[in-house]
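Lecture 7 notes: from sequence to structure.
We start with the chain below.
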Amino acid sequence: MMSALIVDDEIYSREELEAMLEETGEFTISGKCANALEAIQAIKKEKPDVLFLDVQMPLINGFELLGMIDEKIMPNVVFVTAYDEYALKAFEENALDYLLNR
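Predicted structure tokens for the same chain:
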């Protein structure tokens, strides 16, 4: 099983993604965060295998968050967003995948 951390400012998106991931039987949810500052602390503490990350969040967006994570503890990143225009940038940032959530 892979441990996953979900980072999204919208509670319903976090809950929906959590339900979908648990349904696969492949993930344990190590945490859910509403913003980048919570996420940094959770990543340091939980050291998840995969980070499911929203792009558009208040104050610090998903790309800025990636720049704040120590390379030694950087999990695999899957962007989950409603915006297709960030896909190329996500893969330039070495994203494992990019999921459109509409």
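Points to note: The beta strands are 2-7, 27-33, 50-53, 76-81, 97-100. The longest helix spans residues 11-24.
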